[in-house]
Amino acid sequence: MGSYVPSTRQERAQMLQKIGVDSIDALFANVPAGMKLKTLNIPQGKSELEVSGMMSALAEENRVFPVIFRGAGAYNHYIPSIVKSVTSKEEFITAYTPYQAEISQGILQSIFEYQTMICELTGMDVSNASVYDGASAAAEAAAMCRDRRRSRVLVSAAAHPMVIRTIQTYCHAAHVEVGIVPMKDGVTDKDALASMLDAKTACFYLQQPNYFGQLEDADTFGELVHGAGAKYIMGVNPIACAMVKTPAESGADIAVGEGQPLGMPLSFGGPYLGFMACTSAMMRKLPGRIVGETTDSEGNRAFVLTLQAREQHIRREKASSNVCSNQALCALTASVYMTAMGAQGMQQVAELCYAKAHYTAAELGKIKGFELVYNGPFFHEFVTGCPGDPQVLLSRLEEEGILGGYPVEGGILWCATEMNTKAQIDKLASVIREVSGAWN
Amino acid sequence: MELIFEQSREGRGCAILPGLDVPAAELPEGLRRGKKLHLPQIAEVDISRHYTALMKRTHGVNDGFYPLGSCTMKYNPKINDEMANLPGFAKIHPLQPAHTVQGCLKALCMAEELLCEITGMDSMTFQPAAGAHGEFTGLMLIQAYHESRGDHKRTKIIVPDAAHGTNPASAAMVGYEVVSIPSNSEGCVDLEKLRAAVGEDTAGLMLTNPNTVGIFDKNILEITRIIHDAGGLNYYDGANLNAVMGIVRPGDMGFDVIHLNLHKTFSTPHGGGGPGSGPVGCKELLKPFLPVFHQVREGDSCKFENPAQSIGSVKAFYGNFLVVLRALAYVLTLGAEGIPEASANAVLNANYLMHELADLYEMAYDGPCMHEFVMSLSKLKKENGVSAMDIAKSLLDHGIHPPTMYFPLIVEEALMVEPTETESKETLDGAAAVFRSIYETALSDPQSLHDAPVRTPIRRPDELGAARNPKLRYQFTE
Question: Is the ipTM reported for this complex over the cut 0.95?
């Protein structure tokens, strides 16, 4: 059996003798005898070699696609080697939340740098140290906006379905009403939003680019929402932020998003990174950890967890949120990624995504039935029609080692990133041409 | 130390990406970002050195003894990290077709089966990303259960005053009124006060057992029965499961729903504050309400299923999957004998260290402890002016991460010590000697403890100043 207990039998006996009891069992005297477990019905422990074999066998039951044209909330990007190298350092991996600032300056400074980069990327004033993922960040952002007078939450129907669902779940728990603002031509319907905004509306959540890849007219939504006295939350793609108008420029009060594209592998959905940033006015409503700069008793630069009067360990049931753990190692990943890329690299990856997606859309658009479903501007995802059963096409693509787009209502949602070469895109088009040829 | 931004030099950088191999495309003018993006311009060598410098200013479990109470800072086995990083897991898109992700789904099914057996639960969701997220999820299950029965009068959750701060905060997020009940002189639930607090409005109870003072509540069956008799459900905060895994199960104590902290009990690393994983287990009666994407076996294969009356989703996708894998590797390694052995040794180590200190330090409660114990420095504070904070800061100079300070709130000047099972007798003896010498210093030279630490990268920081004048980001000069 495997074990990580260093004590030998002899040492255990010495320890028991010092304590003055006969057996470890005697230390469990408070546990009612009848309640104790007779046998734990799980397999016997295994050696490291055996466990390695079992886990590797599970990994081999998964298919790693060499070519991916699927996004829908999880994006295939290149991860610079320096990212993995830094985040493999055991000090970062094995530390707890930096409660003891004097021996946690490394983690604290890395979070301070992360907060700065998120503010830069989004244009917002203040960032927290991260939350669980983009969807929970959106739900926490909605909670920041609610008060007694204004409690209703509006969400764009063009947001990611899992984000909508998460916001609904959080709101349902708190007995708060959620209104879904319908979509028109692949983007959020402005007229519908205007008619839904009222004196009870706390906030409106818009995703940019939206679930279907379309770029929304974010400024106008901001004006509408603020005109009704509500708060404006934008969920943004961090790569697109390097190229597209920032949420701050579009008037957002809170910007949130899924940070996975910033150096995190796909990982079957997690761990990812929820980033959250807001205006200075909303700073004290932010959930979770926030790191601030200060000085130590000798005047040296120092970093600490700060504004803790918001948090659960101080405020208990009156806290701004129950968040305790964050995704610190993922935040570190994102900051090393952004450092390695630099401003130029971030703009380059955005431009590559944009150009490759537009080339893909153009090539697919040449095939009958695979034209774009929506005609507005888009970033790196887009929906095409599919004149036959999408599963037939996707299975054929699988045979070629290609994870195709994601089936959505009305067609298929495709994604292209810097990882997709022209040759891959041309191959994709040729397989689609072949399959759809059989359909005609 | 310099920030990464202060090391930036115009024109430096890394060459990561190739040029375009498709025609260039232009984003329409009105959509383009106007604000300049400031990110560091740094050569790779200096990135590497910057983060190495930060690494040296960070203390992890790998650096030394870390008896941070309630956080179970046990050793994080390296095989677990290696397995989680296998390309067959790390490179899997979450929306791949089910037949291409059978390994991931099987891993989730296996983890569910093993952890349900360890906790005495019938079903488990891995979607919650951390302990507090699990509490929120579990409370929603309780809420959904009562609502499904048309029972809308249950508006209160009972939480002992010794509970973790996340408990009342989570209850508030689910719209519950929190009823705080005082602990008795033994640090346990006061049965009379509990009986007086329950009623037709009781939705449930949140409890940690062993509790936050490190004592197993021997009345646990009576406590959970009082709640059940009132029509409420019992929630187990799994933060302290490391004391009892494989020895006694929350399911057998009368709990209906629990969360686990895989980043505590099941050895996954904390990552400087996350990612964690807070799976929620429940009895059959709550299973219909679990979040969407519940893994199930179907013949030889596995798939996701949405429970009939699901509460919905607490995040996107299926949880912090790579963290769950680490915990799975850990449970497979320890197995039927290793799981209880870990808890037995966690309890032994805590009792040993407590015994080695008990003649000097005042323990908050008498009798054997479980996996952690709480000391009160209130006498020393009154008589010599040395606080729990001073003792903690002095430990830093000795390379020991301090215990949890000022928690639980019911003990004055508290230090909560949790050694865990992965520390050797020499480490405990060494730590005991340090604690003892600090105590002597507290009597002979209290000022030196007020000044501690002196050997750390920084001295005590001005926390008040940080909160009064928040500086939360670096400001660039345009």
Answer: yes
